[in-house]
Design brief:
The chain is mainly beta and about 100 residues long. The chain has a domain of about 70 residues. About 0% of the residues lie in helices and about 65% in strands. The protein starts with a strand and ends with a strand.
Length: about 100
């Protein structure tokens, strides 16, 4: 079963057993339920939500919280001598998708 979910204003195509990196999720437990399922596809039918599929949930397990690789931000204006270099490291959460379910 394949699903499209929305987390942190980004959309991800997932299936059971897949591992994804999303924006940091602040929670104490290591399991989360995701209700914002936009599309659900098994081998026979495709269900498109308006805007979400009713009764569809995704169970995921938090594997780790980590920082992404450093991104360099460089600003430059010609003829003025203005140059500014800055770095950024995004906080991320690694999720493992355990189960995709549709309650009838």
């Amino acid at each position: 079963m394949i699903a499209v979910i929305e987390l942190g204003s980004k959309q991800f195509i997932i299936e059971e057993g897949s591992i994804i990196d999303v924006e940091k999720i602040n929670t104490d437990s290591n399991k989360i339920n995701i209700d914002s399922v936009l599309l659900l596809n098994d081998s026979k039918t495709t269900t498109v939500g308006q805007p979400t599929v009713k009764g569809a949930t995704v169970e995921a397990e938090i594997l780790e919280q980590f920082k992404d690789d450093k991104q360099t931000v460089f600003k430059f204006k010609r003829k003025t001598g203005y140059k500014k270099t800055q770095g950024h490291r995004q906080q991320l959460t690694r999720l493992k998708i355990n189960k995709i379910a549709l309650k009838a």
